[in-house]
Design a protein that fits this description.
The complex is a heterotrimer of chains A (366), B (562) and C (296).
Chain A lengths: L3 H17 L3 H21 L2 H4 L12 H19 L6 E5 L8 E4 H27 L2 H6 L6 H29 L12 H24 L7 H30 L7 H21 L13 H19 L19 H7 L4 H4 L6 H18 L1
Antiparallel strand pairs in A: 1-2
Helix pairs in contact in A: 1-5, 1-11, 2-5, 4-5, 7-8, 9-10, 11-12
Chain B lengths: L1 E9 L8 E8 L4 E5 L6 H8 L2 H4 L3 E9 L4 H9 L3 E4 L12 H11 L4 H14 L15 H13 L5 E5 L7 H16 L4 E5 L3 H4 L5 E4 L8 E3 L1 H7 L5 H9 L8 H13 L20 E10 L2 E11 L4 E6 L5 H8 L5 E8 L2 E2 L5 H7 E4 L12 H11 L11 H7 L15 H13 L5 E5 L7 H16 L3 E5 L3 H7 L2 E6 L2 E7 H5 L20 H5 L8 H7 L4 H4 L5
Helix pairs in contact in B: 4-5, 4-6, 5-6, 6-7, 14-16
Chain C lengths: L4 E3 L9 H31 L8 H5 L3 H23 L3 H23 L9 H12 L1 H19 L6 H14 L1 H10 L5 H24 L2 H4 L10 H4 L3 H15 L1 H32 L7 E2 L3
Antiparallel strand pairs in C: 1-2
Classes of the chains: A mainly alpha (366), B alpha/beta (562), C mainly alpha (296).
């Protein structure tokens, strides 16, 4: 078992790193690390994740395939739309709206980097999708969002049973002579599931009430609400003011203070709202030294990127050049690779539970 | 301790109160069974124990309720959850989390208990309900009985002294139901929990009930007392009590064990002649619907392995067997929802292979386990019209006028009602109307008695008999032996995808058969009809049959047993 | 002790009127400001070229990272605000959970079955849910549908806050149709559904356009390409916008038209009966009851 927070920190640092640099060399390193982790996570087949029978497919599509699409697409788009840059490869007649004009190597390179950044972001988040079980993703929502976490938990729990219900309804309608001929014929399948769901929601609310849900101190929550709202409104006003100030020449200096101050206040509002929500968490994964190592190594990867920004801000304009490579940055970025080596080994007993679970799932459907 | 003093309750907007003048006292550590027809107020009574009524439902309460020293009307369910655990009918609809452990911990998390205490309590209830091994399983992968035990464990996590259950077994098969009831007796006898249980199948629970509450239709004249006293005053009772009443046994027996001494005496007075069992020959060679060496299943794994069966007009065949023996699959195969891998299904001599489900279902009506899956229209009449439309039949040319069909099913006054607002029994009859409006020749029913009260069951039985009189072929899958005994011409037992026994109801449900439904855990024939258990080797299956043979003067049998 | 209490469908415990008015006003303000900031995060890239030059912190504030954080914060502020009114009662929590689950399965169908283009069945319930049960409920329904769909399909990414915001706004704005319907007095008629279908059509395109915007800072309008000395020669807001529109038409319009057709079609075909079903349950889900002294 790995601690989910390990992954949250890893994702945060990796995506910040991805968005900090436009240097394609660093991007390629980050993308490579992402692919490597995805690969080893897939090989792991965490029982606690794939066995929950909720998440069906690991990922909607592969990050590598996404990169193969995004990089050329970015290059093509920017190459066509951006007229800047000194190395002109070709010229489109200016009579074509938007696209007409010179096509430059710089614009193509800039676009390709855009695509690469998107692909890297995609790969980094794919790690999150694979590494953390759904239950933990919900469980680690901030305290203030406890109702929303419960809503999500109910929804996730409800999903397998909706699918079963859907099969039942399809059979029940089939024996009434229902056939799928067009869009209209989806209705008899949809409606009983919807109404069944609404009825179920009533029962669910009753059981939750009977088990003391909402037993938390409502007065306290109600007292907290106006303060939260005020903090939130004030914070947002500051953010907006910061944004407006940014538009006025000469006043720009003040804008970041307002922006960050406002954002801080908005964050505090969430923290303050969470204070009045009383609950404890049953499921507590163990934090191990492996988790510490992962987090420290990932954090270290960010330091040189912030300290020595020269090679970080690579820019192909006005004349295309080979990006600089700072070994210090390159080497520390490899620290993000640490989790590959610290993944737990597959245990036999857990895989067994997993397989029995699956077969009983099938039985249920029979 | 639970005390009601002249309690009345009215739902918001209702013309009449749901409960009136209820006065009762239930001592600590007692086991109470609540019964009565659906919609009479059982649920209302149970929900007033933890304040769900009126805090969740709305409505007006008068009188005085005291549960564990608290007034649930005043303090509400949020306080009462520490005193009263509540378990509902449908285990699936109770789950918030997707894993056994997390589900049990939900109430504790919500109550913000410290983690060590939470761990301790979760372990405690897991142990109490024998769920230790399942603690990390996903709820979707559990059987119905296991799910309901998890729901009980979740209700007990806050350590209440009272456990209230609203028909917890009505959606379960008999094995799962037994599983849950066993757990309840352990909780009551072992852990000293006060249990209040609403249940339709009285014969299951009377042996360990200390108290019985009967709520008749209308919610007035609620009776509370020892099972014997209450059953003596109510009309619908288990067969052994019905026999006892008819034959004047005293003290009135409420369980088979109590009835057996009386039965032995009564039988001894008869000549030892065993009534000859009329051996039913089974279906004739050419049935209306014929199954030949059928193999079918899902994917590559066959569920049915060589099943042969004949359905004949005017005959009621009851199909029995354990869970997972392939009964439902056989029914689905008959209407084409599951396609045969080997063997044939012949409808009037024609192979149904390749015939679309829609076409088959004009002649074969199939009622799935959950009639709710069928119903989605705004009115009952519309449900019938939809089926006709599906088949491309106009309402005028319907083989059976919808009004007439509704009248036959006792739904004439419900034609404009919203089907989902009706009672379980009525919904089931609406579903029947929706599948029978094409005037089929065969009716297949998959566990139609789930969740039905005695009255609705009686109506269903009358319907089945009327279909037989109209020369329909009926195939009925049920776990309900009393219904099987009352309805069956022929009984077919299935096990592991095969037919292991077939014969008249008397030969199969009577005692001598090797394949009679049995409770594996005890080896006893606890699933046999009560009449058979009381009068073994007689060939009587129902109370009526027994009484016909035992038509002895009442006073002869009235002596108490030694 | 003898207590008679009366509960009735829809009697809600209300704080004193003045306090209530303040609360409602605050709530409106929160929703409006948070939405404004969210929109700002979406559209900020277009304004970059108009900005006076900046360095240091101010420059950092324009990075995609900060815009993403701002989008996420405004989403959280909106959720915090809406859950106070639309998920504070157990019945609402359960109803939301069930509808979100149902919608997530519909969304799953979308990813599992290769449907026509951007067709997605999830907008149907978000619109009707918001329309019947109110804007806050609609916001949570839309936002959480996106969240839970991402959870079960492995679709968590930097786009998620923006998807949740846009999905939530669909539900949040749905009650506006109710105003129009009430004004035209066409409730429970065909026109009510047509109004909803038009609303759904507009949002189908808008949603697609907004979803293109989240990665706009990366793909970049030419205006945002640094090092050009773009204060002199950069593209104006108008040009950037035109660029975006061209991009949108080229890459997404066909896709989004399929979504439009699907959503409008579903609303026209199934809208009325679904509305009836949702309304039928609306009274059962009417919320908090409070004791008042009365006799039976």
């Amino acid at each position: 078992m790995t601690h989910p927070v390990r992954w949250f920190v890893w994702i945060a640092i990796a995506s910040v790193a991805t968005m900090l640099t436009r240097n394609p060399l660093y991007q390629v390193i980050l993308f490579g690390i992402g692919l490597l982790l995805i690969d080893s996570l897939r090989a792991m087949q965490f029982p606690e994740q794939s066995g929950d029978g909720i998440r069906e497919s690991g990922l909607p599509f592969s990050p590598l395939r996404f990169a193969l699409f995004a990089v050329p697409a970015g290059a093509l788009f920017n190459g066509l739309t951006s007229p800047f840059g000194d190395t002109i490869i070709a010229r489109l007649p200016t009579s074509i709206p938007y696209l007409g004009g010179p096509i430059t190597a710089e614009a193509v390179a800039y676009g390709a980097i855009n695509g690469l950044i998107l692909a890297t972001l995609f790969a980094v988040f794919a790690v999150l999708n694979l590494a953390v079980p759904v239950r933990d993703l919900i469980g680690y929502l901030p305290r203030a969002f406890y109702p929303v976490a419960v809503v999500s938990a109910i929804a996730v729990t409800f999903v397998p049973s909706i699918k079963r219900q859907f099969v039942q309804v399809r059979e029940a309608q089939a024996v009434r002579g229902h056939q799928m001929r067009g869009l209209h014929d989806w209705f008899p399948l949809f409606m009983p599931v919807l109404v069944g769901g609404l009825e179920r929601a009533m029962q669910m609310a009753e059981t939750m009430t009977a088990r003391g849900f909402a037993a938390r101190d409502r007065d306290e929550a109600a007292r907290a609400a106006p303060i939260t709202q005020l903090m939130s409104v004030l914070g947002m006003a500051l953010v907006l003011a910061g944004g407006v100030l940014r538009l006025i020449p000469g006043w720009t200096i003040g804008s970041p203070f307002l922006l960050f101050g406002g954002m801080g206040l908005m964050g505090s509002a969430i923290w303050y709202a969470g204070r009045s929500v009383r609950f404890t968490r049953y499921h507590r994964p163990q934090w191990t030294r492996f988790d510490t190592v992962t987090v420290v190594a990932a954090g270290a990867a960010l330091v040189p990127l912030l300290l020595w920004p020269i090679s970080r801000d690579y820019n192909p304009y006005p004349l295309l050049s080979w990006p600089q490579f700072d070994v210090r940055i390159g080497a520390t970025l490899l620290g993000l690779m640490v989790p590959v080596f610290l993944l737990p080994t597959r245990k036999d007993d857990t895989t067994r539970t997993f397989s029995t679970q699956r077969s009983s799932d099938i039985n249920d459907q029979v | 301790m639970i005390r009601f003093e002249s309690v009345a309750f009215r739902y918001p907007g209702a013309a009449r109160p749901a409960l009136r003048d209820v006065t009762l006292t239930l001592p600590e550590a007692s086991f109470t069974v609540v019964y009565g027809p659906s919609g009479a107020g059982k649920s209302t009574l149970l929900r007033s124990l933890n304040g769900l009524v009126p805090h969740f439902s709305g409505g007006t309460v008068s009188g005085r309720i005291e549960v564990a020293g608290l007034d649930p009307v005043r303090v509400g369910p949020e306080r009462m959850c520490w005193q009263v655990g509540f378990v509902f009918q449908d285990p699936e609809a109770q789950f918030v989390m997707d894993r056994v452990e997390d589900e049990i911990a939900f109430a504790l998390e919500n109550a913000a208990l410290p983690v060590p205490e939470m761990r301790e309590r979760v372990a405690e209830v897991l142990d109490l309900l024998g769920l230790m091994e399942l603690r990390r399983r996903s709820l979707a992968s559990l059987s119905g009985g296991e799910k309901q035990r998890v729901a009980i464990a979740a209700a007990l996590a806050l350590r209440p002294g009272i456990l209230v259950l609203d028909e917890p077994t009505s959606q379960l098969d008999p094995e799962s139901a037994e599983d849950v009831l066993q757990a309840l007796t352990r909780l009551n006898a072992g852990a000293g929990l006060t249990i209040v249980l609403a249940e339709h199948r009285l014969e299951r629970v009377l042996s360990f009930a200390h108290r019985l509450i009967h709520i008749p239709a209308g919610g007035t004249e609620v009776l509370c007392g020892s099972p014997r006293d209450v059953l003596a005053q109510t009309p619908l009772v288990p067969p052994v009590t019905a026999l006892g009443k008819a034959l004047g046994w005293s003290p009135l027996p409420v369980t088979v064990a109590e009835g057996q001494p009386f039965a032995r005496r009564a039988a001894a007075k008869l000549e030892g002649a065993r009534v000859p069992v009329d051996e039913h020959t089974g279906g004739e060679a050419s049935g209306y619907l014929q199954v030949e060496a059928l193999e079918a299943g899902y994917g590559t794994r066959p569920v049915l392995r060589g099943v042969s069966l004949n359905l004949v007009p005017g005959e009621v065949v009851v199909l029995m067997g354990r869970n997972g023996s392939g009964k439902s699959t056989l029914l689905k195969a008959l209407v084409g929802l599951v396609r045969p891998q080997e063997g044939h299904i012949l409808l009037q001599g024609h192979d149904t292979r390749g015939v679309p489900v829609a076409e088959l279902c004009r002649q074969i009506a199939y009622l799935p386990q959950d009639p709710n899956a069928l119903l989605f229209a705004d009115t009952v009449a519309e449900e019938l019209a939809i089926t006709l439309r599906n088949h491309g039949i106009s309402t005028q040319h319907a083989p059976l006028a919808p009004e007439e069909l509704l009248a036959r099913l006792g739904l004439s006054d419900k034609a404009d009602a919203y089907p989902r607002d009706l009672s379980v029994g009525e919904r089931q009859r609406v579903a029947l109307a929706a599948i029978m409006v094409t005037r089929p020749d065969v009716v297949l029913l998959d566990e139609p008695t789930r969740g039905l009260d005695y009255e609705a069951k009686g109506k269903l039985l009358a319907l089945i008999r009327s279909w037989r009189a109209q020369r329909l072929a009926v195939l009925l899958v049920t776990h309900d032996v009393e219904l099987a005994a009352a309805a069956a011409d022929r009984v077919v037992m299935m096990e592991d995808g095969r037919i292991v026994a077939e014969g008249s109801a008397h030969s199969i449900l009577g005692e001598d058969s090797a394949h009679a439904p049995r409770d594996d855990s005890t080896g006893a024939q606890s699933f046999a009809p009560q009449t058979v258990q009381l009068f073994p080797r007689r060939g009587w299956l129902t109370v009526d049959e027994a009484l016909a043979h035992l038509a002895v003067p009442v006073n002869l049998a009235a002596e108490p047993p030694a | 002790m003898h207590l008679d209490s009366a509960w009735s469908c829809g009697s809600i415990r209300r704080p004193p009127v003045a306090r209530l008015r303040t609360r409602r006003w605050l709530s409106w303000l929160t929703t409006a400001l948070a939405s404004l900031i969210g929109l700002g995060a979406f559209f900020y890239p277009f304004f970059l070229s108009e900005l006076p030059p900046a360095t240091g912190l101010a420059h950092a504030a324009e990075s995609p990272l900060l815009l993403g954080a701002l989008g996420a914060l405004s989403l959280l502020a909106l959720i915090l605000e809406t859950q106070g009114g639309a998920a504070s009662e157990t019945k609402q929590v359960a109803l939301l959970g069930v509808l979100v689950g149902l919608n997530a399965v519909l969304g799953f169908l979308e990813t599992a079955l290769p449907g026509p283009g951007g067709f997605s069945p999830i907008f149907f319930l978000i619109i009707l849910g918001g329309y019947v049960y109110g804007g806050r409920f609609g916001f949570l329904l839309g936002g959480l549908t996106m969240f839970v769909t991402a959870l079960i399909t492995g679709g968590i990414g930097p786009w998620l806050p923006f998807r949740m915001l846009a999905g939530g706004w669909i539900g949040l704005t749905a009650p506006a149709v109710g105003r129009v319907v009430a004004w035209l007095r066409v409730r429970e008629t065909r026109w009510e559904i047509i109004a909803l279908a038009i609303f759904g059509s507009v949002w189908s395109l808008l949603f697609g356009a907004l979803m293109n915007l989240w990665f706009w800072p990366f793909i970049g309008t030419a205006a945002s390409q640094p090092g050009l000395g773009y204060w002199e020669s950069g593209l104006s807001v108008g040009q950037g916008f035109a660029n975006f529109v061209a991009f949108y038409i080229a890459t997404s319009l066909v896709w989004d038209l399929a979504r439009l057709g699907g959503t409008a079609g579903m609303l026209l075909l199934f809208g009325l009966p679904t509305l009836r079903a949702l309304r039928r349950f609306a009274c059962r889900f009417t919320f908090t009851v409070a004791p008042e002294e009365s006799s039976v």
